[in-house]
Amino acid sequence: MDQELLYKNRSVSSCIFAAYKLMGENFKNIFRVTWLPVLLIGIFGSLFMLLNVQDERILSTAIAHPAIYLTLFAIFLIAMLACSVWASARFLSMLNERPVKQNLIRVLLLSLNTFAICLVIGLLITGAVFLLKRLLKCDIPTLLYDNWLVFMIAAIILLILLLPLTYISVRYLFDEKAHFWTNFLKNYARGFRHIGFLFLTFVIAGIITAVLGFIIYLPFSILVLAQSLSTFGVLQGDPSGMPGYILPLMGITYLVTVILLWYVSIYLFLVFIFMYGSIERQRSDRHAIPLAPADFMNYPTTDHDPANPIH
Predict the structure, then answer these.
(1) 75, 144, 152, 204: least surrounded by Cβ within 10 Å?
(2) Contact between residue 56 and residue 231 where contact means Cβ atoms under 8 Å apart
(3) According to the per-residue pLDDT averaged within each range, which of 59-63, 117-121, 136-140, 296-300 is highest?
(4) Range 193-208 average pLDDT
(5) Residue 288 exposed, middle or buried by CB count within 10 Å (0-12, 13-18, 19+)
(6) Where are the alpha helices (DSSP H) in the chain?
(7) How far apart are the C-alpha atoms of 202 and 199, rounded to whole Å?
(8) What are the backbone dihedrals phi and psi of residue 176, each rounded to the nearest 5 degrees, phi first?
(9) What is the phi/psi pair of residue 225, to 5°?
(10) Buried residues in 104-136 as b, exposed as e (16+ CB within 10 A)
């Protein structure tokens, strides 16, 4: 994929279609590069999920051996997150032709910065809710129920304000000279100038991925619901109606679900890439600014091996 294909002025529908076409034409190569870390994400994710299943055997083990339970909980969670960073870095190396080690650092730093932003926003929202609770002298459920429209509008406004972060994030991953916090407000304002384009792209691509995600997640959610109802009945003294292999079945189902959802998220990321390229093209045309090199979709299997082009 050459520079002209990425940095092209596109509409919302063109970004979505370009991502679909690129994903379809190169899926075999993407899978070849990412299958191992994605498989490990699914394995550790399944183990992590099983620790949280509403099952009498798991609950009794957690109560009897809390230290072992918490240790396994932390190990599986950290391993799952580490493999996610690894998979993202390997995929990113197909796009920007940089070594995997370099992209590992970029993806990790971006993840930490994103977590820090979400943490600050979460604390501010929590503080605001408790402040309103104290001022209005009511409990939180009543506060949310009586003012649901206000909170919905606030959530939409917050989403709109966060959308320029997608531009900043993709630019940080693609532009080797870019820094996340350096000129953060300037880059945020640059992304906010295209807020309509960002919003429409996010909504339409989000609806597509949400529908796919719902279909993929549905079998596992049915198993979870059945298992939860069975466990509740057992705690009430009723016999379990679930087969003895329900936990392995849930683990395998969740493994497949996580793998499929990861590749759906790859499609969404490709949409954001073309959205970023369109914004950069418009900025370049407006101010006569040279574009960053973008000869990508080549993946070096090691830091020194020749690249394998993806057409």
Answers:
(1) 152
(2) yes
(3) 117-121
(4) 93
(5) exposed
(6) 3-6, 12-25, 27-51, 56-64, 66-96, 100-136, 140-146, 148-162, 164-174, 184-192, 195-235, 246-287
(7) 5
(8) -65, -25
(9) -65, -45
(10) bebbbebeebeeeeeeeeeeeeeeeeeebeeee
Tokens 């953060």 correspond to 184
Find out whether 172 and 110 touch, Cβ atoms under 8 Å: yes
- Who has greater pLDDT, 6 or 112? 112
Q: Are 259 and 42 in contact (CB under 8 A)?
A: yes
CB 73 within 8 A of CB 48: yes
* Radius of gyration for the alpha carbons in the chain, expressed in angstroms and rounded: 23
Burial 194-227 (b: 16+ CB within 10 A, else e): beebbeebbeebeebbeebbeebbeebeebbeeb
Residue 88 scores a pLDDT above 90: yes
Q: Whole-prediction pTM value?
A: 0.84
**What's the whole-number mean pLDDT along residues 25-38?**
93
Token digits of residue 140: 């939180």
C-alpha to C-alpha distance for 274 and 295, rounded to whole angstroms:
14
Q: Which of 115, 22, 76, 13 lies closest to 258, judged by CA?
A: 76
Which secondary structure element, helix H or strand E, spans residue 298, and what is its range? Answer: strand 298-300
Identify the pLDDT of residue 98.
Answer: 85
Q: How far separated are the first and last CA of the chain, in Å rounded?
A: 7
d(CA 296, CA 178): 18
Closest alpha carbon to 50 in 66, 69, 78: 69
Residue with tokens 């973008």: 294
Is there a contact between 40 and 237 (Cβ–Cβ < 8 Å)? Answer: no
Distance between CA 65 and CA 290 in Å, rounded? 61
